[in-house]
Amino acid sequence: MIDFIIKSSFSLSVFFIFYKLFLENEKMHLFNRFYLLTTLVFSLVIPFITIQTANEIPLQNFQTFISEPIVIKQKESSFFQFNWTVLFFACYGLVTLTFFIRFTKNVLNLLKKAKANPFIYFKNTKVILVEEVTIPYTFLNFIFVNKHDFQNNQIQEELFSHELVHIHQKHTLDILFIEMLKTIFWFNPLFYAYKKAIQLNHEFLADENIVKKYNNVPFYQALLLNTNGNKPIYLASNLNYLVTKKRLIMMTKSTSKRMNFIKKTFSLAIMASLFLFLSLKVNAQEKATTTSKKSIKNTAQSSSYYDNTIVVFKDKKGNQREVKYADLDEENKKRIPPPPPEARRMKVSEIQFDKFKNKTNCAVWIDGVVIENEKLNSLSSNDFVFVTESFVHKNARSKRFPQEYQVSLYTEKGFVKAFLNKKDFAPNQTIYLDGTKK
Q1: 152 and 273 inside one domain
Q2: For residue range 62-74, what is the model confidence (pLDDT) as tens digits?
Q3: Average pLDDT over residues 154-167
Q4: Is residue 398 part of a domain?
Q5: Does residue 437 have a pLDDT over 60?
């Protein structure tokens, strides 16, 4: 979820900044409408797309200190642990539901208003006559106008034509789309900025059509100024919910076809670049670090993994002791096996697999069960989805396992049980810190 929000927000930010700086004030409104809607969809989809650059992931070399076995048991928590995740999603769901109810209510109110008031047909469009004092505005296939102004011929033809453009180009669908996204991503201010940009683009498109049709820019500009100051209608296209100054400037602005072509090309290049940047996943080889760095990393991971753990062992006097992991000294902590490695499937290469067949150098386990190395001859590297390899120091080797390396191979079933189903994975070993066996 966090990864989705980060990637989509980053993508939206880049696209929106580019739009505000280079596209919004250019007279290529149809392309801008396509750009705004496409980048919205693109930013929501791109987090789910991953391109693998390599088919084979090299072996991760987990260097650990192999000691004698130890008994580890999980301690039952003695206090109530509050689940903040549940609270977070409950709050998110409540706010989202509130916004969805508000959105649905506004849509139904406009449909109810269209049905409850008298109407006439104007150029195959329903004109709804309402009592409220308002300038014409549209929603879906309806134009809402003040009944008194209409009956007294106080509504200019240009205003009707302006609203017809909104209807014919189906601008309401754009608004409904962004409003639905705002309902889900109400916490992200980028969607609010996108809505304003989309609405302004709609007005540019309508103005452009009116200027071409009537070819009287001064009169139309004066008409807009006279209608300035009216309250905008939620979910509807109307003449005043945007900055009128931008619209007046845009009507008289000239455009360079060459510059527009360059900016369109750059916008597509940015989209392609973001696609590669956010979806490309490089399977780079993880090189082995020094023992000291690995030891520090393992200690930090263990501190979290063994938070509620009791270590049972015999001290040098032979007395059995139970000690919290946090109370162990650093020397004894190093004797405890590190936590399971990060659960990430990997491909075992043929070179690695052949190396594991050498019983002189490697002791091998499959899904936690020790096997004879010869058994690997009847298996394939493709039978396994995960592997760890540990170096065993001389003082930790035994007669049964004198090899320098201990290798654990996992099939899909064993991988899921050991690393994905945490409840099924619990270290259950025994160690005596004085080095003597029972």
Answers
A1: yes
A2: 433 333 444 444 4
A3: 90
A4: yes
A5: no
What would the two tokens of residue 152 be? 């007294």
Asked if residue 186 and residue 143 are part of one domain, the reply reads yes
Domain span at 415: 71-77+289-424
Residue-wise pLDDT for 107-133, tens only, equals 999 999 999 999 998 888 899 999 988
Would you state the pLDDT for residue 51? 75
pTM of the entire structure? Answer: 0.60
- The answer, yes or no, to whether residue 18 has pLDDT greater than 90, is yes
Q: Is the pLDDT of residue 199 over 50?
A: yes
In a domain, 39, yes or no: yes
- pLDDT tens digits along 206-260: 999 999 999 888 898 888 887 765 555 656 655 444 568 888 889 888 878 888 8
Same domain as 96, residue 238: yes
User: 258 with 345, same domain?
Assistant: no
How many whole angstroms separate alpha carbon 141 and alpha carbon 121?
11
Q: In this structure, are 322 and 393 located in the same domain? A: yes
Is 389 domain-assigned?
Answer: yes
Q: Based on the fold, state whether residues 297 and 386 are members of the same structural domain.
A: yes
Distance CA 215, CA 212 (A): 5
Q: State the total domains in the chain.
A: 2
Q: Residue 184 has what pLDDT? A: 95
Do 174 and 294 share a domain, yes or no? Answer: no
Q: How confident is the model at residue 293 (pLDDT cuts 50, 70, 90)?
A: very low
The 3-class secondary structure across the chain, one letter per residue, is: CHHHHHHHHHHHHHHHHHHHHHHCCCCCHHHHHHHHHHHHHHHHHHHHCCEECCCCCCCCCCCCCCCCCCEEEECCCCCCCCCHHHHHHHHHHHHHHHHHHHHHHHHHHHHHHHHHCCEEEECCEEEEEECCCCCCEEECCEEEEEHHHHHCCCCCHHHHHHHHHHHHCCHHHHHHHHHHHHHHCCCCHHHHHHHHHHHHHHHHHHHHHHHHHHCCHHHHHHHHHHHCCCCCCCCCEECCCCCHHHHHHHHCCCCCHHHHHHHHHHHHHHHHHHHHHHHEECCCCCCCCCHHHHHHHHHHHHHHHCCCEEEEEECCCCCEEEEEHHHCCHHHHCCCCCCCCCCCCCCCCHHHHHHHCCCCCEEEEECCEEECHHHHHHCCHHHCCEEEEEECCHHHCCCCCCCCEEEEEECHHHHHHHHHCHHHCCCCCCCCCCCCCC
